[in-house]
TrEMBL record:
This is dTDP-4-dehydrorhamnose reductase. Catalyzes the reduction of dTDP-6-deoxy-L-lyxo-4-hexulose to yield dTDP-L-rhamnose. It comes from the Bacteria. The gene is rfbD. The keyword Transmembrane helix does not apply. Its EC number is 1.1.1.133.
């Protein structure tokens, strides 16, 4: 079986390659090998390689830049999923797609359920929602995993940025009124693999087709996340310039950005837990593992 992973060099795509390597031939073309912005090139690639499973980890994730590049965001976040879903329908295969907490309105304090009303605040969120809805409407067998605050031991992300700044600066102001769950790419890939069975047909999904929230248990702010990064880094023996008193929380209003951020990114994960018969780990325990992997790679 050919397993086609889009965005294979990204944080989630890289971890998916590690998880799915035992199950078939992983196809994870680089940008030079396949331009996902080119619909004809994608069609030709699918026709040539005929994958039996598609894991769509590609996305336009530059949230602020999307406000000035809506067409580019729409191509990767909406049109590419539409194209992959059409192929999945025609071939009778499964499409796994990764979405975002940004599809929700970001208001209140109640965790979002999978069937909660959507109302994105940004171009990025709107295009991600368009991709979700198109996959659902296509009728293909699908798993849509909505996740939040993705980071990893590799790539560019909040954890690595904080470690760099924490070594250089004695004080930082970090937003403290956006609440969510930091989610490691490794956990996303591990849970994705759990959704498949190799008994009988190769890589058949063993949970109902649909939308699921995939995030650790618990919640924090960006300020809380940063503080725990620094705390765990010190425990691991890292020398930091930043002091516990130097990490100050500020409201979103004091850190304006082109794209509006949701204040409430809490997502209930019980649907996924019940479907897979698992309990999602806490975000703190996942940070310890991800930070260790990063520090050990030096």
């Amino acid at each position: 079986m050919n397993i086609f992973i889009t965005g294979g060099n990204g944080q989630v795509g890289f971890e998916l390659q590690r998880q799915f390597a035992p199950f078939g031939t992983v196809l994870a073309p680089t940008r030079d090998e396949l331009d996902l912005a080119n619909a004809d090139a994608v069609d030709a690639y699918l026709a040539k390689h005929q994958p039996g499973l598609i894991l769509n980890a590609a996305a336009y994730t530059a949230v602020d830049k999307a406000e000035s590049e809506p067409e580019q965001a729409k191509r990767l976040n909406a049109e590419l999923p539409i194209q992959l879903a059409a192929y999945a329908v025609k071939q009778g295969i499964t499409l796994v797609h990764y979405s975002s907490d940004y599809v929700y309105p970001g208001s209140g304090e109640t965790p979002w359920q999978e069937d909660s009303p959507t109302s994105p605040l940004s171009i990025y969120g709107q295009t991600k929602l368009e991709g979700d809805l198109a996959i659902i409407e296509s009728g293909c067998q699908h798993l849509i995993f909505r996740t939040s605050w993705v980071y990893a031991a590799r790539g560019n992300n909040f954890m690595k940025t904080m470690l760099r700044l924490g070594r250089e600066l004695e004080a930082l102001n970090i937003v403290n009124d956006q609440i969510g769950a930091p989610t490691p790419a490794r956990l996303i890939a591990q849970v994705t693999a759990l959704a498949f069975t190799t008994q009988g047909s190769p890589l058949t999904i063993n949970i109902p087709s649909g939308v699921y929230h995939l995030a650790p248990r618990g919640k924090t702010s960006w300020h809380g996340f940063a503080s725990e990064i620094f705390n765990q880094a010190r425990k691991a023996g890292e020398t930091l310039a930043i002091t516990p008193e130097g990490t100050a929380g500020i409201p979103t209003a004091e850190y304006p950005t082109p794209a509006k951020r949701p204040l409430n990114s809490r997502m209930a994960v019980s649907k996924l837990e019940n479907a897979l018969g698992i309990t999602m780990p806490t975000w703190q325990s996942q940070l310890v593992l991800t930070l260790k992997e990063h520090l050990d790679s030096f």
